[in-house]
Amino acid sequence: MAGPLLRILIRLKPNKYHSMEIAARYRIIDLFKQIAHDLHLTVDQLLRISIYRSGPNGCSLLYPMNNNFSTTHYDVSVTFDKYGLSGNEELYIDLAELILCQQQDNGELSTNDKHAASSLDKSDYFNSTASSSLNLEESSSSSLTQAKTTNNLSTKKSLIGQLIRFSVPADNSCLFSSIYFVLHSGKLDLASNKYLRNLVATKIESDQITYSEAMLGRTNSEYSKWIRKDDSWGGGIELAILTQEYEIEICVINTQCEGRIDYFGEDRHYPYRVFLLYNNLHYDPGKLKL
The OTU domain covers which part of the protein (predicted)? Predict the structure, then answer.
């Protein structure tokens, strides 16, 4: 058995992220190897990075145990389960400075990247927002029957307004319920969760090279069977697939990490975006009110 899966969120530059999942039984060095492969880096470049753990009170340092450069504390042979991590937890890694330095060394910086490099600082690590004018406001109603049924897709130019949160059941399928909600003008259909799970599983089964055991934390076949189960949580892998299948950008606002926004499909220039809110345990749909 592969054991519990951990979600890994990697910040590449302001407002741009890479997500993956890995089994808790894997070593830290195994994660570094996968990151190096995915992002065209070397393992040596990653040996002194920090790994943060997302929790109800924000992000806390997981690895190394402190910020000195002792080899004892930077032990990459340790497996993640030694830290007492449970399934569906999220880890956060910031590679923005490393990638910018590499681009500078290679002369690959675009105008936007140069601007980002000049403004990058520690205060931005856990506080990436889509717009300084974006306000988060929870709906006063917990009933979805009161949600307006106007189109819930927002054009990418329409970011200024209030984001209203609606509630979906905490039944292990909240990600799929939220996706259906934002795609169908505020309608909730719990029966659709099985369809979305099967859609994701079929996509994974059709591409065993991309969706390898290293990426999934278990074999392609095992993961496909697992995500079809009603009690299996969806995460970054599922969001990355759904953003391509529906050709929309999905923005996930982490309410426990100072409103950090994780973007899925941002690099594909889709004309529409939708919003989800996430508290490290549960997804709810959001609707932008202009």
Answer: 163-276
Q: Identify which has the larger pLDDT, 263 or 135.
A: 263
> What pLDDT shows up at residue 147?
29
CB neighbourhood size of 286 (10 A): 27
CA distance 185 to 179: 11
Instruction: State the sign of the Cα–Cα–Cα–Cα dihedral 98, 101, 102, 103.
Output: positive
5-124: CATH, from 1.10.340.30, 3.10.20.90, 3.30.360.10, 1.10.3470.10: 3.10.20.90
Taking only the tens place, the pLDDT of each residue in 168-191 is 998 899 999 999 999 988 888 888
Pick the CATH number of 135-289 from 2.160.10.10, 3.10.20.70, 3.90.70.80, 3.40.250.10: 3.90.70.80
Cα distance between the two ends of the chain? 48
For the beta carbon of residue 105, count every other beta carbon within 10 angstroms. 9
